[in-house]
């Protein structure tokens, strides 16, 4: 791990068995990939390049060694996608599995892209898929196994790692990864930046297979796309006078924040959304 100019970003995340993952829904390697991806995506969402992670693992004494080894393999292999390494950690005994990952990143002499930099009139752009992991979670929760692409997306997210740096170099004014749902996470940008964000419904093309699964489960697939988390796509704002990088899709704009205290921070075609993202409490 290195940062020659001393400009480092850091993030941490906790996964709890039964709340963030289940062993009967994915392998130890899947869990390792998910745990690493959640943190590496946070690093690239600040415009940095991931360099390393440290991991804390608390688990029951009877947990199979094979699961722990597969978990370690998943951490290593996900880090390898971005040239990072597992550089340390700790282990302890507990009644359930608790995982804590802290990731570090090098800004390469750039300023970090924060959530509070969006200005009125910026465009909002998205890179990566949303709704896939939420659809996979819904399938698994109902005990189904159809819809492999969505189940795989839940088990092993595929963040667009390279695009965080691309966005920073293109002049992104704010950015975050979509871990709690697009509306929820854009709400964090809106609050930090003092703006309102309006999304365009027409900008979101729901895959036909997701529509079919939503119909079978009695759920609105647009709710997965706009409210579902765990895909770790990147969402950013860019000056309207600039250019949005290739691979990013414009999905909305920033507006002057409403004077009313009860005004939603994020709207869809000017209307308050009916779906919400993940709230830890």
Automatic annotation (TrEMBL):
Catalytic activity: thiamine phosphate + ATP = thiamine diphosphate + ADP
Taxonomic superkingdom: Bacteria
UniProt key word Ion transport: no
GO biological process, one term: thiamine biosynthetic process
Enzyme Commission designation: 2.7.4.16
InterPro entries: PurM-like_C_sf (IPR036676), PurM-like_N (IPR016188), PurM-like_N_sf (IPR036921), ThiL-like (IPR006283)
Any Pfam family the entry gives: AIRS
Residues that bind ATP: 89-90, 115, 179
Domain PurM-like N-terminal: 5-105
Binding site for substrate: 20, 230, 278
Binding site for Mg(2+) 4: 11, 42
SUPFAM superfamilies: PurM C-terminal domain-like, PurM N-terminal domain-like
UniProt binding sites for Mg(2+) 5: 180
Gene Ontology MF, one: magnesium ion binding
Keywords: ATP-binding, Kinase, Magnesium, Metal-binding, Nucleotide-binding, Thiamine biosynthesis, Transferase
Binding-site residues for Mg(2+) 3, renumbered to this chain: 42, 177
Name assigned to this protein: Thiamine-monophosphate kinase
């Amino acid at each position: 791990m290195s940062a020659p100019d001393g400009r480092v970003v850091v993030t941490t995340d906790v996964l709890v068995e039964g709340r963030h993952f289940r062993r009967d829904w994915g392998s130890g390697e899947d869990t390792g990939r998910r745990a690493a991806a959640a943190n590496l995506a946070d690093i690239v969402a600040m415009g940095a390049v991931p360099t390393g992670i440290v991991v804390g693992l608390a688990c029951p004494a009877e947990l199979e060694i094979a699961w722990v080894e597969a978990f370690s393999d998943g951490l290593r292999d996900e880090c390898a996608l971005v040239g990072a390494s597992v550089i340390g950690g700790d282990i302890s005994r507990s009644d359930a599995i608790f995982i804590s990952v802290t990731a570090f990143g090098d800004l390469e002499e750039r300023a970090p892209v924060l959530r509070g930099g969006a200005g009125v009139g910026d465009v909002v752009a998205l890179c990566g898929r949303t709704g896939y992991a939420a659809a996979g979670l819904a399938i698994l929760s109902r005990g189904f196994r159809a819809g492999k692409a969505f189940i795989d997306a839940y088990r092993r997210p595929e963040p667009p790692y390279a695009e965080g740096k691309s966005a920073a170099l293109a002049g992104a004014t704010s950015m975050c990864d979509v871990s709690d749902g697009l509306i929820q996470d854009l709400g964090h940008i809106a609050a930090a930046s003092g703006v309102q964000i309006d999304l365009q419904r027409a900008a979101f093309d729901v895959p036909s297979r997701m529509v079919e699964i939503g119909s079978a489960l009695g759920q609105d697939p647009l709710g997965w796309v706009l409210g579902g988390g765990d895909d770790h796509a990147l969402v950013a704002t860019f000056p309207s006078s600039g250019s949005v990088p290739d691979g990013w899709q414009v999905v909305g704009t920033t507006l002057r924040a409403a004077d009313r205290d009860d005004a939603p921070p994020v709207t869809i075609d000017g209307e308050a959304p009916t779906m919400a993202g993940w709230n830890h409490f």
